[in-house]
């Protein structure tokens, strides 16, 4: 008996001990994964809520929209209240997702890039591997670019090497310190990533949240415009439009609809190249925020956008309903992604800047013919390249309203006396102004970043 | 008792000398009370002669003349023996000393072995059955309060979401890990709900506090261990049947304890805000955002839809209502708990058993909340193979049903402006008929719903109680099998196995009539171009089923060794343990549910639907919440433990343990953590040279070692979580990162050093224990804010070290003996802690805000600490709060807040008591005993709540300090509540934050409270032969009697700022047949 029991016990013990390594390999939670496979990396980048968001703070500050004193006072988030009056310090200690979300994109992109480095390229397959790598580089470059347009000084070639940039993180190791180099280094990194991404990406991508060569071309065009490198901007806009030049005919849309544009993921809007959402805040969703009357009046009779972009709420309030995110999106979010209409305008501007008046007019007319009621459309004719440029700038402002691009343009064009403007607001009896080239065109780094990052 | 006697007789055998018989007579009295001891066994050693004492404690024996050793034994008393010579010269008077709190008799349980406390060097505290039953409660854990030095129940609830029991033993040894002590039932850690344990089935509880005591539990012992031993039968005992029942009742809570802004003030504020056009935003809302009844009236009067004086009249009338009255009447009730238990225990020569069944039914003081529990326990032990094999099967089964209603919570927090209900809401009219309350939409929109073909959109909170049914049924059973085989004398092997299964089913059914369901159906109702309505969310109830199955298996193989030589003893255990716990939970949401036929409808989760109430055509998807979780928790542990007692004087203890677990993303060879401990003890009073007559018992001990803490939530690798993506626009499955990579991850370790002394005076008039400990948590896991540019807002890693120390005193004194016996139990504990290193700093505001959550530790300060802005009083001219900026009095709040650093903040002190304890006095007279427990907590701080003007000016109401605010010059002499800023003033949030986190609102928490009173009256058959039972005990218990003394002048209970605990009264009966 004794021996039997002892034997049993020892057999049991040996059996248990020998299989324990496998026993401890079980996942504590089945939903968890260590991203290691191509599918995992794709899933990380398909988190569109995180990966396809850009800062939306500038919508509060760009002067296209305004709100009554009562509406302004009702804001409870300090950076909304303060951004509206162009205050110097705006966060009052709070963090801001307009900053942290793009950096999450950088983090995810870095995880993918590091993870791909450990995979066998042959086993993954060249095409898949390239697509993943190109996408990660694209996301990282776009995140840096978007952050820089809000939180770094406007691009100026003459002072570039002496201007502070944004933290450029190329590793997912969060123990490595965050430090900002110069603005020159920031833009070099963006260009470098995007150039590397370009050959790896697929020509066109479905769904619209995934990067493609087309998206990269559009991105280059937007970036070189911000850098005032007009020849390069023209080249990329042109190459993009060569692949996809389709425009949505606004004549076919229902002006009475409260969400007149097709859903962005439906594929029914032929202009959309890449999906990007402006980070919302209590200003962007306010039903009291109205388009500036002077701006509204710029849309002429017969311009379909007057009804398709704006909703008359009475008492002189016109809210925006023209987001290309379209009908099916969960909330009324603003579209900041790439679309062919922007590329037409970029190319037209570059043409005009190098004196090609006719070419500029041609692009403008291609676009505007889809924006006006057919019977009201009259082609644009300008006296010279200078006035063509002015006309392009006007059309740009009208077409790209609430895409977050007005802020980029203000930062770029204020250096040019022809286009410089002083923004002015009267809030609760006090007049606030934002003069051209003011330091307040650069949003400060968030307080939590300064504290934890040691700036 | 009789069986003990029986066994004594059985073991006493000798040959009677054939001489003449002489009589020995005597009387046995209890040493302290001088009460006769009835039923004590009196034997003459070496003979078969034995008897039992009578009712008055007398006995008489006959034996041949000669010298004998007389033994007297009775349960609860120390065994007595003395030499007698027959024939005796006088009648013997024998004083039996009570064994209660007799240290040398106590056996403590570690869950791995039973250990005589005498031979242990570690810090063990044992709480026996009687003391546990002094309190009346449905659960076992709360009964430990004020009984164990060093153990506190943290009353400021929800301060740490990981904290499930709210119990701290010797402060907290972790920062972001689970702060609960490990709870062990009999042999294995208890994974179920602690409420499943019927307290009447508990025999005793041992609390393991230091490394030597707890390190046998290794990586789970960092916060101490609570070992619950369940009742067992006894060998050679006739069946004993006992019945216990109690009833506990309590009144409704005081809803006015926390001052709130009055209805009148609230309405005046609404009028003021209306005059400032505040409600314009809501009026222009694209979703028919609600306006409170007063604002509706003001709007109607402005638009000429109602006469201004009529509106005024109605508004004035509303000032008279207070929602709290209605809540008290309709949502609260008296609480009533019932408890019943029947137990049978006994045993024979080769078997013992304990079987019990219990039923509890508790009606909470909020309607719709109740709990019932049916519990069944059967445990058996068989001795086989002439005692070499011991087989112990046992079964525990518990079924609970808990009903919970969210109706009260909804009416308090959901409606109107999404965070409060206006304080003048009426729930019922004069006749008690339910009234509608404004909730999500404007009155006209709600009012016209039905005529537009929708379901009624009215919200009547009182009706809701009956319209939803949210209950959880849980069945939990544990099957245990224990095998002990004695291989050689002193060497035995244990095999212990436990299988546990729990099935918990929660069903939350919102009937079609409930607001929740009507709202959901209406929201998604689609209007076709012809005006016809379709309902994507169909009619019928909406049910949510949350089903969780847990299967656990534990297996332990252990060798026990005992060796005694010349009065020295070596005992040791070594073992291997394996645990596997799987949890599979699923959540299913069903729409259009038909209860009658158990049928649900199919809905379209993939199409966006236009929301009916949205004027802009906002769309939404029907919520798909179906979800499954599959968790696995595995452990493999090796352990060994040895104790050597040299001549009952010198003790040497040691233990080692290695734990390995299936931590995610960690290589197998990195999953383990070895932990060890060592202890020394010296029973000084056993030394020959020890001749201290006033302190006949003295033991000194010292231990050192490591415990651990497991944090299973983090990983060394980057981890991500999959989401099916059905709720996104793109409908693509995606993954989000939950844990950034941390290749340097290690397990938490807690180093503990403990020094103790146990002593007892002559006749045990004073007994006590004195302990001092120091502990050091190293490699603690902390969550820190990192630069958002890293892509992560907070990061978890081994960032922290923490240091703690404390002194614990426990004293039992027998103040008087005799007919009126008075004893006192005094507990005194200190627990100081300090964060000694923390890898990162948090935002200054986070230090201010995390006083109770401990999420922003600061080096050199306790983990739970209160900080504040220095306070310079109110500005006499304006009533603005004033602080200091660069040493000057300032009102520049944004600068005060913006430039504050942890160094410039005032540190007030810890937010958890650093000195605490209790004093319990027990008076006994005949069969009646009364005890009262007073508890005290000193040296800690709390932040008083006050008014936040940003909320007041957002029509959200606020704290009742509003009425105490500065209103005119001179008020600053008697108030520190700032004046109200005008609507639209900028920087109100900063002004509020400065005031609310200023030193003006920090109070000392020190207080003394009368916790409870217990009364017990026992009738014994021995004293009342007519009694049909052996004993009948009648008991009463009053809990939460209130505060006796407090330091703060605000009249606040520092531990309960929102609602005071209700005084409860219990009465019960225990019958032993």
Helical residue percent band of chain A: 40-55%
Mean pLDDT of chain A: 89
Distance between the termini of chain A: 75 Å
Alpha plus pi helix count of chain B? 16
State the total count of DSSP E strands of chain B: 52
Percent range of helical residues of chain B:
10-25%
Strand % of chain A is 5-15%
Q: Which residues of chain A sit in consecutive blocks of at least 5 with pLDDT less than 50?
A: none
How far the N terminus sits from the C terminus of chain B, by CA atoms, comes to: 14 Å
What average pLDDT do the residues of chain B reach? 87
How much of the residues of chain B is beta strand, in percent? 35-45%
**What's the CATH topology name of the domain at 103-234 in chain B?**
Ferric Hydroxamate Uptake Protein, Chain A, domain 1
* CATH topology descriptor of chain A: Serine Threonine Protein Phosphatase 5, Tetratricopeptide repeat
Structural class from helices and strands of chain A?
mainly alpha
Subcellular location (chain B): Cell outer membrane
Membrane topology (chain B): Multi-pass membrane protein
Protein name (chain B): SusC/RagA family TonB-linked outer membrane protein
Domain TonB-dependent receptor plug (chain B): 121-225
């Amino acid at each position: 008996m004794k021996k039997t029991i002892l034997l049993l016990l020892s057999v049991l013990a040996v059996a248990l001990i020998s299989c324990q390594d496998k026993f401890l390999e079980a996942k504590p939670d089945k939903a968890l994964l260590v991203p290691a496979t191509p599918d995992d990396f794709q899933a990380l980048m398909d988190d569109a809520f995180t990966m396809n968001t850009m800062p939306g703070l500038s919508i509060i500050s760009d002067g296209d929209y305004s709100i009554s004193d009562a509406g302004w006072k009702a804001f409870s988030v300090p950076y909304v209240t303060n951004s509206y009056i162009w205050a110097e310090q705006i966060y009052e200690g709070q963090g801001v997702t307009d900053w942290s979300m793009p950096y999450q994109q950088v983090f995810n992109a870095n995880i993918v890039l590091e993870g791909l480095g450990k995979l066998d390229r042959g086993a993954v397959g060249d095409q898949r591997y390239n697509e993943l790598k190109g996408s990660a580089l694209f996301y990282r470059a776009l995140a840096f670019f978007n952050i820089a347009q809000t939180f770094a000084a406007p691009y100026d070639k003459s002072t570039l090497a002496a201007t502070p940039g944004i933290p450029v993180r190329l590793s997912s190791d969060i123990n490595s310190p965050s430090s900002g180099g110069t603005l020159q280094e920031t833009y070099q990194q963006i260009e470098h990533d995007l150039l590397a991404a370009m050959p790896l990406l697929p020509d066109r991508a479905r769904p619209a949240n995934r990067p493609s060569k087309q998206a990269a071309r559009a991105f280059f065009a937007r970036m070189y415009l911000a850098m005032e490198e007009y020849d390069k901007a023209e080249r990329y806009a042109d190459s993009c439009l060569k692949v996809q030049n389709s425009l949505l005919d606004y004549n076919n849309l229902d002006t009475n609809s409260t969400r007149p544009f097709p859903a962005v993921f439906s594929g029914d809007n032929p202009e959309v190249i890449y999906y990007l959402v402006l980070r919302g805040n209590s200003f962007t969703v306010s039903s009291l925020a109205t388009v500036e009357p002077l701006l509204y009046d710029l849309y002429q009779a017969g311009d379909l956008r007057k009804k398709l972009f704006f909703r008359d709420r009475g008492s002189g309030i016109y809210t925006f309903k023209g987001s290309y995110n379209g009908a099916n999106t969960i909330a009324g979010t603003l579209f900041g992604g790439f679309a062919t209409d922007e590329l037409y305008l970029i190319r037209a501007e570059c043409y005009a800047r190098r004196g090609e008046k006719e070419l500029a007019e041609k692009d403008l007319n291609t676009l505007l013919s889809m924006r006006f009621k057919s019977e009201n459309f009259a082609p644009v004719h300008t006296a010279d390249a200078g006035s063509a440029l002015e006309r392009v700038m006007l059309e740009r402002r009208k077409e790209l309203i609430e895409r977050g691009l007005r802020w980029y343009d203000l930062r770029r064009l204020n250096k040019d006396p022809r286009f410089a403007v002083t923004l002015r607001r009267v809030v609760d009896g006090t007049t606030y102004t934002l003069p051209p080239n003011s330091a307040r065109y650069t949003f400060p780094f968030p307080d939590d970043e300064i504290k934890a990052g040691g700036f | 008792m009789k069986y003990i006697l029986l066994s004594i007789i059985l073991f006493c055998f000798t040959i009677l000398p054939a001489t003449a018989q002489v009589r020995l007579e005597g009387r046995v009295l209890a040493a302290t009370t001088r009460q006769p001891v009835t039923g004590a066994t009196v034997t003459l050693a070496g003979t078969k002669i034995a008897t039992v004492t009578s009712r008055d404690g007398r006995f008489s024996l006959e034996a041949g003349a000669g010298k004998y050793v007389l033994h007297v034994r009775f349960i609860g008393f120390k065994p007595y023996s003395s030499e007698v010579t027959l024939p005796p010269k006088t009648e013997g008077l024998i004083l039996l000393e009570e064994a209660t709190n007799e240290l040398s008799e106590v056996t403590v349980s570690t869950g791995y072995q039973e250990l005589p406390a005498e031979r242990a060097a570690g810090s063990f505290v044992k709480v026996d059955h009687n003391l546990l039953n002094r309190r009346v409660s449905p659960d076992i854990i709360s009964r430990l309060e004020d009984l164990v030095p060093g153990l506190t129940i943290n009353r400021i609830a929800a301060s740490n979401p990981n904290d499930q029991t709210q119990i701290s033993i010797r402060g907290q040894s972790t920062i972001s890990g689970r702060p609960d002590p490990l709870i062990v039932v009999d042999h294995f850690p208890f994974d179920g709900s602690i409420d499943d344990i019927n307290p009447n089935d508990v025999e005793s509880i041992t609390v393991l506090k230091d490394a030597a005591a707890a390190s046998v539990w290794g990586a789970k012992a960092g916060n101490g261990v609570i070992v619950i031993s369940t009742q067992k039968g006894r060998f050679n005992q006739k069946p004993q049947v006992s019945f216990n029942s109690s009833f506990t009742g309590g009144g409704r809570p005081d809803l006015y304890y926390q001052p709130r802004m009055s209805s009148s003030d609230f309405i005046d504020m609404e009028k003021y805000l209306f005059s400032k056009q505040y409600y314009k935003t809501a009026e222009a809302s694209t979703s028919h955002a609600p306006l409170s009844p007063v604002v509706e009236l003001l709007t109607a009067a402005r638009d000429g839809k109602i006469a201004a004086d009529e509106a005024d009249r109605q508004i004035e009338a509303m000032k008279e209502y207070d929602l709290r009255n209605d809540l008290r009447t309709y949502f609260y009730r008296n609480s009533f708990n019932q408890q019943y238990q029947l137990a049978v225990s006994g045993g024979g020569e080769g078997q013992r058993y304990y079987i019990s069944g219990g039923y509890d039914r508790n009606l909470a003081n909020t309607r719709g909340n109740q709990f019932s529990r049916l519990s069944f326990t059967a445990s058996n032990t068989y001795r086989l193979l002439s005692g070499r094999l011991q087989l112990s099967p046992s079964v525990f089964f518990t079924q609970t049903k808990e009903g919970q209603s969210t109706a009260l919570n909804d009416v308090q927090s959901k409606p109107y402006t999404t965070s409060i209900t206006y304080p003048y809401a009426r729930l019922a009219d004069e006749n008690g008929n339910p009234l509608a309350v404004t909730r999500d939409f404007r009155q006209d929109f709600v009012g016209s719903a039905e005529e537009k073909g929708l379901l009624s959109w009215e919200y009547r909170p009182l009706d809701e109680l009956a319209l939803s049914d949210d209950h959880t049924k849980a069945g939990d059973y544990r099957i245990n099998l224990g095998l002990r085989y004695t291989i050689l004398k002193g060497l035995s092997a244990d095999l212990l196995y436990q299988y546990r299964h729990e099935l918990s089913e929660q069903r939350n059914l919102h009937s079609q009539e409930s607001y929740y369901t009507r709202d959901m159906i209406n929201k998604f109702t689609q209007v076709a171009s012809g005006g016809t309505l379709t309902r994507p969310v169909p009619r019928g109830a909406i049910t949510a089923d949350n089903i969780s199955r847990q299967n656990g298996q534990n297996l332990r193989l252990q060798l026990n060794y005992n060796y005694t030589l010349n009065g020295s003893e070596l005992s040791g255990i070594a073992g291997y343990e394996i645990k596997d716990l799987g949890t599979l939970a699923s959540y299913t949401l069903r729409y259009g549910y038909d209860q009658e036929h158990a049928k649900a409808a199919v809905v379209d989760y993939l199409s966006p639907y236009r929301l009916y109430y949205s004027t802009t055509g906002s769309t939404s998807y029907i919520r798909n919440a179906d979800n499954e979780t599959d968790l696995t928790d595995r452990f493999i542990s090796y352990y060994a433990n040895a104790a050597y007692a040299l001549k009952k004087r010198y003790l040497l203890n040691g233990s080692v343990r290695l734990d390995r677990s299936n931590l995610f993303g960690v290589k197998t060879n990195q999953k383990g953590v070895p932990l060890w401990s060592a202890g020394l003890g010296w029973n000084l009073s056993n030394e020959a040279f020890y001749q201290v007559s006033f302190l006949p018992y003295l033991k000194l001990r010292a231990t050192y070692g490591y415990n651990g803490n497991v944090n299973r939530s983090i990983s060394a690798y980057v981890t991500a979580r999959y989401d099916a993506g059905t709720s996104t626009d793109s409908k693509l499955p995606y993954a989000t990162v939950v844990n950034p990579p941390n290749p340097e991850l290690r397990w938490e370790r807690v180093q503990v050093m403990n020094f103790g002394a146990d002593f007892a005076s002559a006749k045990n008039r004073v007994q006590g224990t004195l302990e001092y400990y120091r502990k050091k948590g190293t490699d603690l896991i902390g969550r820190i804010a990192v630069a958002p540019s890293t892509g992560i807002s907070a990061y978890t890693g081994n960032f922290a070290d923490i240091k703690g120390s404390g002194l614990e005193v426990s004293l039992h004194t027998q103040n008087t003996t005799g007919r009126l016996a008075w004893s006192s139990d005094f507990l005194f504990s200190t627990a100081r802690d300090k964060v000694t290193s923390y890898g990162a700093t948090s935002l200054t505001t986070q230090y201010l805000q995390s006083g109770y959550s401990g999420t922003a530790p600061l080096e050199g300060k306790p983990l739970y600490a209160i900080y504040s802005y220095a306070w310079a009083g109110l500005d006499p001219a304006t009533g603005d709060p004033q602080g200091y900026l660069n040493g000057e009095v300032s009102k520049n709040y944004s600068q005060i807040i913006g430039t504050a650093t942890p160094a410039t903040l005032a540190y007030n002190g810890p937010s958890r008591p650093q000195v605490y304890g209790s004093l319990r006095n027990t008076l006994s007279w005949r069969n009646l005993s009364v005890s009262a427990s007073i508890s005290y907590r000193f040296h800690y701080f709390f932040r008083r709540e006050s008014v936040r003007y940003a909320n007041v000016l957002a029509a959200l109401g606020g704290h009742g300090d509003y009425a105490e605010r500065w209103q005119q010059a001179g008020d600053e002499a008697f108030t520190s509540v700032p004046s109200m800023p005008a609507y639209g003033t900028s920087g109100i949030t900063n002004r509020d934050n400065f005031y609310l986190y200023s030193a003006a609102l920090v109070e000392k928490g020190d207080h003394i409270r009368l916790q409870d009173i217990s009364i017990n009256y026992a009738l014994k058959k021995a004293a009342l032969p007519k009694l049909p039972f052996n004993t009948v005990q009648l008991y009463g218990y009053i809990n939460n009697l209130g505060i006796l003394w407090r330091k703060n002048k605000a009249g606040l209970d520092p531990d309960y700022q929102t609602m005071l605990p209700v005084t409860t009264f219990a009465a019960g009966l225990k019958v032993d047949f």
